[in-house]
Write a structure and sequence with these properties.
alpha+beta; Beta-Lactamase; Alpha-Beta Plaits; five-stranded antiparallel sheet; five-stranded mixed sheet; 10 strands; elongated; Rev_trsase/Diguanyl_cyclase; EC 2.7.7.65; diguanylate cyclase activity; PAS-like_dom_sf
């Protein structure tokens, strides 16, 4: 007998208590039945409570709505569609959904199930597992990969992804879209005089001002160094220019807490042209930004 079996007092070939085994599983084994009239229930449920926290299993044995009614409103139609496809084509279900635990809390559940035709409808055999911690960790990693460490804004990669998405919407619907490029004036002088820590503080404060002054629908990101960008959906050039100038003015009037005098920015604007590649739009906004620098800085050029 191995050390492990000696400790448990059970040999490998000894019969296993199935009930004890299922209760120790990190999830819920189930059978799910849908009859020909569409009524759904769980004729069998076994396993730890973590798969279906806070749900009365006896009630689920009578009516699956006790669980389905607690699904997140975005996930409910997806799960119903997956059940319908599985019943119609005999294909397995593999999905995940959110269950409401309270008005402010939910848990994530992963579900896999295999359908079987039954005399009274369709019977699925499957497993549900609580994957809340996994989903939280995945969300944290996504935020890290999408976020600029210093400012908390979207990083260059994420901003370009969002710009691609907005260009696709603008192209599809013929709606306006503007791109704003912003660059701190004489930023090298700040770093050289006060050091990089002070320069980082200025960049962080600038990011905060951008979040405060731009609209909720605008997508703000840091491209790198002292250069920032704002994607402005549903906004033609004629509307984006005054918004950009208000931001420029707010920055020029703000006290950044360093004795260098006024801190200003130069801003370049461009409006998307139907069928234009993304890089061409960026290049036009960049030329406008260069023109703002060339014309004396602390201005908006489109």
């Amino acid at each position: 007998m191995s050390d492990e079996n000696a400790m448990t007092g059970r040999g490998l070939n000894e019969p296993v208590d199935v009930r004890d085994f299922t209760q120790r599983l990190p999830g819920v084994i189930f059978q799910f039945h849908r009859d020909r009239q569409g009524h759904m229930h769980f004729p069998y449920l076994a396993g730890s409570g973590t798969g279906l926290p806070g749900i009365d299993r006896e009630a689920l044995g009578r009516d699956a709505r006790h669980m389905l009614d607690r699904l997140d409103e975005e996930d409910y139609p997806r799960l119903m569609a997956a059940i319908e496809r599985s019943a119609r084509w005999g294909i397995p279900i593999a999905t995940k959904f959110r269950l409401r635990l309270s008005s402010r809390r939910h848990c994530w559940v992963a579900l896999r199930a295999q359908p079987e035709n039954a005399p009274t409808g369709v019977l699925w055999h499957g497993l549900m597992i609580d994957i809340t911690e996994q989903m939280i960790e995945e969300a944290r990693l996504r935020r890290l990969s999408d976020t600029d460490d210093l400012t908390g804004l979207a990083n260059r990669r994420k901003l370009l992804i969002r710009l691609n998405e907005e260009i696709a919407k603008s192209h599809r619907h013929g709606t306006p879209l503007s791109l704003l490029l912003l660059d701190l004036d004489y930023f090298k002088r700040i770093n050289d005089t006060w050091g990089h820590l002070q320069g980082d503080q200025v960049l962080s404060e600038l990011a905060r001002l951008c979040r405060e002054r731009m609209r909720q629908e605008d997508i703000i990101g840091r491209l790198g160094g002292e250069e920032f960008a704002v994607v402005m959906p549903l906004t033609p050039l004629v509307a984006s220019h005054p918004l950009a100038d208000r931001l420029r003015q707010a920055i020029a009037e703000h006290d950044f807490g360093i004795a260098t005098g006024q801190i200003t920015v130069s801003i370049g604007l461009a409006e998307y042209r139907l069928g234009e590649p993304r890089d061409a739009l960026i290049a036009r906004a960049d030329r406008s930004l260069y023109a703002a620098k060339h014309q004396g800085r602390n201005r908006v050029v489109s």
